[in-house]
Fold each of these.
Amino acid sequence: MFASDWVSFFKQSKKNIFGIIICVSLFLAGFLIHGNTGLYVNLSGFLIIIGGTLGATFLSYNTTRIKILFKVLKTSYGRAIKSPNEIVSILVDLSVKKRLQGLLALQDDEDETAIVFLRQALGLLVDGFSKEQIRESLTSEMYFFKMRREETRRVLQTMADVAPSFGLVGSVVGLIGMLAGQGDSAIIMSTIPVALTSTLYGIVLANFIFLPFAANIRERTLQELFLQKIVLEGVLAISEDLHPKMMERKLVSFLTPSARRGRFVSYEKIRQRLNLSEEVRENI
């Protein structure tokens, strides 16, 4: 990831990060308030939960799907997503460029664009496909993108479902040890933490790790699908030679009222980039 990506990601997520730090601190304070943190640490129970949950996951899904899960999580938490108004601005700029320099001029932007979906859409546009073909291709891409993300999210959902169950397994193991050690207080005291902490670990992992990760993937997917929808409508408008100002008005309808302030057609930036004269700029 480039330094600019980290800066953008931090700016977008700093409120979330700050909130997470506060909530985690409060959560841990509940365990530490009585001072004896050793009561909540039990390696045997932790191994039962981790081993059982991962074992069930590997039995349910192939390793390729699990690798994809880690890649999606890395992208979701480590790469900033463009805002809708940035996408609208990019599309309107491209529309102006096409009107001034022609369709083939968009080939340069095809490689410069950081968004894969927009790059694919521009490729279809430059290759001369019809409006219907572009819509069908991009709609299929959106559909299967959603399906792939949903399949990845189900891995975390499965882990969240089985983790509490293996917590109960750990509790049963502890109870068996207690029954086997009747009359021996040392054995009983060593097995009680296994019985209690295993259930605790299972519930915490399911509700504090796996389910939030799954919810994050779902939220990220919805955001990306929303951006893809804007790209789809924008590229179709470009293929119809819709005037940039009308295209802007159409795409702005996707945005919230607070994001609609200002103009997205950056005439000055386009003039400088394309070395346009003032007379040409006024005729855009």
Amino acid sequence: MTRNAWLAAIAPLVLLAALIAALVTLKPAERLRPEGMPAIERLRIERATLGQDGIRLSVMNDGPDTVTIAQVTVDDAYWAFTMEGSATLRHLGRTTVHVPYPWVQGEAHLVKLLTSTGTPFEHEIAVAVETPRVTATHLAAFAMIGLYVGVLPVLLGLCWYPVLARLERAGLDAVIALTIGLLAFLFVDATREGLEGASALADSFQGTAMFTGATVAAFLGLEVLGQRLRAARASRVQDGRSDGAVLALLIAMGIGLHNFGEGLAIGAAFALGEAALGTLLIVGFTLHNTTEGLAILAPVAKERPPLRLLIELGLIGGVPTIAGAWFGGFVSSPAVAVLCLGLGAGAIAQVLYQLARQIAGARPLVERFATVPVMSGLAAGFMVMYATGMLVG
């Protein structure tokens, strides 16, 4: 592009920036507000952390107007508090409120923030336990949980390779259909959890749009990655990696993103003191994830892949569970959780699309799927995931 063309392209952006600056400075909408109309106050208590020095609340102003935090009550009793930063929050402003309250282990506590106008905003601590800190002990504990839940079950599922390698065409079609059923359940599950999490986010985050955008981005991103991997294979850059290996890699990446979300759920459960729920999630996800190794194997069942490749695929699918457990236990950001669930859903949708193309081949999709082996595999895959999912839900 010539210099004049660049200037023509940039000029509208500069004018747009000036227009937005004028709107922010002049605030014409404020002139339409009736005199004496109260401010719109929406505080979000995003996280409560408990330590030996009391309770710390991470607070965000989700409303359009400025809000001032004036008082704090715990179990209907007023308590002194300190704040990191200003007590007055603008739109999307954040602060941390420290309440030196002697919380009781295992008890429930109700915390309220009262603004300068007297509007209360509540946060319930269902079970009071000390929030995990980033220590070697906690890091090792969450890593062990992620290993048991994500890495070992996926690697265990890869042990079915000798069986799959001996299957005929009809049997292999049934296994690929089984994989589609497994992943279809994961897609539905990730979408449900993502939309539920999106609805609980602060309105300013636009949770549904965030989840949808992440889903589409992951779908298109993996499509681009798959095309590049296949192009590299064709030019012998990938050391002879087959189309089946490329598809197995995409499946492992999609499962890995989904397992990151599972790790988030487990870590957050323990961080919130719900040890019983955390233990149940561990058992349920362990059974749930064993079948994921089968999903990774299906595209390479007839290609005699090296053991190293199988181990790499298993680690790609399982190791994100450890990272998710760390993040859920130590950070527990609802917005990040929704974003990751969206990425996982999009990745799984992309893999479903690729598997459907593989099983159909040159024949029409409906005709190829309307066979007994394929229909049986689809139903079996979905029902297996449904049955093991009952241990989690």
Amino acid sequence: MRAAIVENTRVTHHGLVGVALHERGALIDQHRPWAGQPLPDAPEADALVVFGGEQAATDDHSHPYLPDLARLMAAYTRADKPVLGICLGAQLLARAYGAENRLGVAPEFGWVDVSLTEAGRSDPVLAVLPERFAIFQWHSDTFTLPPGATHLAQSATAAHQAFRIGRATYGTQFHFEANRAVVADWLVRFPDLIERMSPGWALRHPGLAETDGALADAHGLTLARAWVDLIQAG
């Protein structure tokens, strides 16, 4: 099994998605287009993962590879190869399928409650989660639901938290890859950004990590494993 992973920023944690892939012995092709590395022209691996980043999904002026990445996600989907877009990755996936990217209108940070839709409760991947669960969020942007996509999860602030296109292409606004170790590292690396997103959150972090964070770790790994199960090695 080979999985292509696209990193969109200098600090990218594969987190629980990486754990699930390595449990299955996956070979990883890493792509860093933000650093000038070219993206593949066509689907070469058995699956594609696109992680988050600080840029907006429409920042073509500063990140000119974004349209190519959106097209690559669509190409994997057409080839019936699993795609996973997380945060920015979900926003790019939505863009690829004709949705509207809405910037700065839905800020969420920390472990936030997300609820499954009726479709989510019967989805092959999302159904492994409780109907309501806390999961980590760090974003300000959101998007409309792409035409033809299946709406899987929602929160009070961002209605489109997860969606599926076709058999195995998933976008999640929430960072289910971010276990407590990842979150703790973000807090060390980006204290000023986090303080602006949620004043005082660093002081609340230890208690939240013991409660919501512990549950989110379990939910995130279960979800990652369920998505990896969709991959058929070519």
Amino acid sequence: MNYTWDWGILLREPYWGWLWSGLGWTLLISLGSWTLALVVGIGAGVARTMPTRFLPAVASVYIQVFRNIPPLVQLFLWYFVFPEIAPESVGLWIKRELPQPEFVTAIVGIGLFAGARVAEQVRAGVAAVGLHLMPAALATGLRPLQAYRLIMLPLGLRAIFGPLTSEFLITVKMSSISLTIGMLELTAQSRHVENYTFHGLEAFAVATVVYLLVGLAVTALMRALDRRFGAAAYRRAAP
């Protein structure tokens, strides 16, 4: 293989700027998707543990649908299909007026997929740690929603910091599939550099290292939060 390595080409403009721009979009997609996943996942996970029939059924349908359809297919459905089947005014707004439709679609598609996975983690955490505390909480005069908000959900979230770390890492890595709908995140920009310079090995090597560093940073952050707020902090505070 007569391949001539040239690492310096990545430091030239516009290729250096492309990679930095791709990293920025990767981080924005990851953070946006994870925020949506947490909000939706916590809501659906709590709904799954409610003592009624309607809310657990609705949450279960959401989880089963979004967790079992590949995220790439979901992105295509949100980006290509949904604007066509939505009411005409909504479809036209999405296609013509929505700012950064690829970015928004990536957050929605990846976030809802990850939210279904987070919901199951939250359900398991609440069921394992908090459900047996419900009678005691109600006996003190708390209403069911207050018991969830003040006791069961905080304890359940503390118990699942480890699994949530894995889900966050998966969300970061899934940001790369947004290139299929035209999002110029890190992987797409690496391909862009390859197409212009024919030095794709260098570009993808740098992208690999960047993904690794982002993953290690996420792991370190979640471990710090676990020590401060998670199960480890709870064990230290227990008598």
